[in-house]
Specification:
This is 50S ribosomal protein L27, chloroplastic. GO terms for molecular function: structural constituent of ribosome. This protein has 122 residues and is mainly β. The chain has a domain of 62 residues: RNA polymerase II/Efflux pump adaptor protein, barrel-sandwich hybrid domain (OB fold (Dihydrolipoamide Acetyltransferase, E2P)). 9% of the residues lie in helices and 26% in strands. It has 2 helices and 8 strands, in the order H-H-E-E-E-E-E-E-E-E.
């Protein structure tokens, strides 16, 4: 078929005359409600037992009071424990109150270690 012949029939373009109309064949993608997350809050112990701290250092960031403040330690409104004076961090279990407490000591404490005696059995 020639183009002038189709023009005299007023059928338009050759693809329309033959019924070959191309349509979009790509299916549209669906939306999703996933794909986002909240920033981590970086909770946990920041200064461990025996570490030196200065006043204002954050010792623990926590949700709730897993650890309670004792001497030389303050607690913020979000339960963050911080040093109120210079010294060394000490974690200990308060038996009468049955809770874990954090205090600041002026002197560095030795870690309690149970030494296993070496046996001379050879």
């Amino acid at each position: 078929m020639s183009l002038p012949f189709l023009r005299c029939l007023n059928l338009g373009l050759p693809s329309q005359a033959l019924g070959l109309v191309r349509h979009a064949s790509k299916k549209s993608g669906g939306s999703t409600k996933n794909g986002r997350d909240s920033m981590s809050k970086r909770l946990g112990v920041k200064k461990f037992g025996g570490e030196a701290v200065v006043a204002g250092n954050i010792i623990i960031r926590q949700r709730g009071t897993k650890y309670h403040p004792s001497t030389g330690v303050g607690m913020g409104k979000d339960h963050t424990l911080f040093a109120t004076r210079d010294g060394y961090v000490r974690f200990w279990w308060n038996t009468p109150l049955k809770r874990q407490e954090v205090s600041i000591n002026q002197n560095r404490e030795r870690q309690r270690r149970t030494a296993v005696p070496a046996s001379n059995d050879a």
